[in-house]
Write a structure and sequence with these properties.
homodimer; 213 residues; mainly alpha; 11 helices; elongated; DNA-binding
DNA sequence: TCGACCCTATCGATCGATCGATCGGTCGTC
DNA sequence: GACGACCGATCGATCGATCGATAGGGTCGA
């Protein structure tokens, strides 16, 4: 029960932080969503900010782990970048609330906590930067501004969390391969998608987030 | 004087709403930034939300006007999309605070005000949708999911507001043409950038936002 | 020229409401 | 009878907003 309630509080917080923002969400909103009194809330969490920090760190950690797992052993930059894009898009489509909190509420963190979050984020973006730089070196990607292109692609993929609906016309599979296609094209890559890598992503995703893909 | 002070309040609000969020910004923060007492603030504005609504509507209206102006008379879809991308990127690079408020604080609006903002936003995205659909029909763009591609591209360009610095290595010109290049590539367009259209964008931008480009 | 009158700009003080958080308790259950 | 789960009541602080007051400058008729 206790573990379950703790998870319910977390999910209530993710939902409300994502839709109303951290500062726009009151302790009483949180309590109502989690079906608890505001006093009981504090049996399962520290301060409101502790809750935000935990959500951000866990979400980012999961994403980073998944990305490392999905690209482990892949030496081909095309496969690596395709995997990173697919994974990022799937994560944002499956967990839109979590990812929107991570992407939009960094400004609500106090300095100490922000440092940890930024560190995780940097490690994650490093994976993208390496894949792109390796591809440029290998001559399969072409871009005059690798860093700018990386920022552009990551942002493009993150946008999925703002609009994707599983009841819409696109399956997760179609979504992921469409974005992977867009990314490879933007990098002027002439090689086709690595379909096996995408399949591998699907398995990593269903393992890490425990959902069928 | 009065007009000047009113503008100072507006700029203080844009800065704080962009960095700390609408709900994260207090009336007293606003007053301090604008160098007024919190009481005097109300001589120049209605409620705090009125201020947010005004900022959003003005910013969006300016962007929409600029986009219509930049694409007016252009029949070629490649030129139109190139212009839209360049304009969007320039606006986000020049006015990062304004655009971040528009992009990230919609959730803070109450239903009535939100409707107006969404309407403006829809009209703006319609320009993008038309350019892309026309290009697909004309056979110069290739994408199986025009709507998804549009969302991806807009989001990609909006990200500029999160990181661009005028003191960085890229000029506004380089930034705009790099993004236009990325967009055309993502649409599998084989035609080159319309450099004249980009030049036109520069002029529209310096007119609408009154800055040298 | 002079006061009477007003209007704009400004602020200290303060309003009721709500904020995040804590207290002292009451329940079952083991 | 000890403990985990839970809550009504309430804390001090802060929220957005308003109050009455003051100072200064322009516009009058006398």
């Amino acid at each position: 029960m206790a573990v379950n309630t703790r998870e319910r509080v977390r999910q209530a917080a993710v939902k409300l932080f994502a839709t109303k923002g951290f500062h726009g969400t009151g302790i009483r909103d949180l309590a109502q969503e989690a079906e608890l009194s505001s006093a009981s809330l504090y049996h399962y969490m520290g301060t409101k900010e502790d809750l935000l920090v935990a959500i951000m760190n866990e979400s980012l950690r999961r994403l980073l782990d998944a990305a490392e797992q999905a690209t482990a052993g892949l030496t081909d930059p095309v496969s690596r970048l395709g995997s990173l894009v697919a994974l990022h898009v799937l994560a944002h489509a499956i967990q839109p609330d979590d990812t929107r909190v991570v992407d939009n509420e960094v400004h609500a963190l106090t300095a100490g906590a922000r440092a940890g979050v930024v560190e995780l984020r940097d490690a994650y973006e490093r994976l993208w930067a390496d894949a792109i730089e390796d591809g440029v070196t290998a001559g399969v990607f072409h871009t005059g501004q690798p860093s700018v292109t990386r920022l552009a692609l990551v942002e493009m993929c993150s946008g999925v969390a703002r609009w994707y609906s599983p009841s819409g016309p696109l399956t997760l599979d179609q979504l992921a391969s469409h974005y992977a296609e867009l990314a490879l094209r933007a990098l002027a890559c002439e090689r086709p998608l690595d379909v096996a890598a995408l399949q591998n992503c699907r398995e990593v995703v269903s393992g890490v987030w425990r959902v069928p893909v």
